[in-house]
Write a structure and sequence with these properties.
The protein is mainly alpha-helical. Helix content is 70%, strand content 4%.
């Protein structure tokens, strides 16, 4: 059965026929990126079609594209879910993220303006509030928004697509970081990113991004053990 969070997410904006497949793909992508679909959860084509108010056909196409990107996999029968994460795959994702997300953060710092500062400051408050309340879903949504606000500020669509593909593979596992205290640690890195970007300090923001990636990596390695 599809979760209430999935239904709420699907009801925000009605879909139109013109770009239905792309809209469904985008909507499912965002559900994965912001933690609405978690490891171990199974969803079906029909449950997504019902939630989005569309026929199964565009949902099947979206799931096919996401399966090709290693973001989803067939779990059993007609159910799909998040692929299992191996130690080798986790290490590979960490190593690639180390490079490309740091590059995007550096470019964002070079382009920092008042609008970016204001957006990141607001998201930092949301991250702190969600962590204090123990609200995992709200934290993951704010975490996704914070990072991608930075990465979009790099003004590179190609770089953004690469990072999004990496996050599709790793971000569902951020649900598993809460009990370790990683969200508090991560928020310290977020504040460091914010300060470095405001000061247009490229090296410092790249160091903070890598520290944030590394913190999650070590916790997840421990979970996989």
């Amino acid at each position: 059965m599809i979760s209430a969070a999935l239904k709420n997410k699907a009801s925000i904006v009605p879909l139109t026929r013109e770009t239905l497949q792309d809209q469904v793909f985008r909507r499912v992508t965002e559900l994965i990126l912001d933690g609405s679909i978690v490891p171990g959860q199974m969803v079906t084509v029909q449950s997504l079609a019902d939630a989005f108010g569309v026929s199964p056909m565009p949902v099947r196409e979206a799931l096919r594209r996401l399966s090709a990107a290693d973001a989803l996999t067939v779990v059993s029968g007609r159910s799909i879910g998040i692929p299992a994460l191996s130690r080798a795959r986790l290490s590979d994702l960490r190593n690639v993220r180390f490079e490309v997300e740091a590059i995007a953060g550096g470019w964002a710092a070079e382009r920092c303006n008042d609008a970016l500062r204001a957006s990141l400051r607001q998201l930092l408050e949301a991250l702190d509030g969600a962590n204090a309340a123990g609200d995992v879903k709200a934290y993951l949504r704010a975490n996704y928004a914070f990072h991608f606000t930075i990465y979009r500020a790099s003004e590179s669509e190609n770089l953004l697509r690469i990072i999004e593909n990496l996050w599709l593979q790793i971000s569902p596992y951020f649900n598993m970081l809460h009990d370790s205290g990683n969200y508090s640690t991560s928020n310290r890195h977020h504040r460091e990113m914010f300060t470095a970007i405001c000061e247009r300090d490229v090296d410092r923001v790249q160091e903070a991004i890598r520290a944030d990636i590394d913190g999650a990596y070590h916790v997840l390695m421990g979970v996989l053990d």
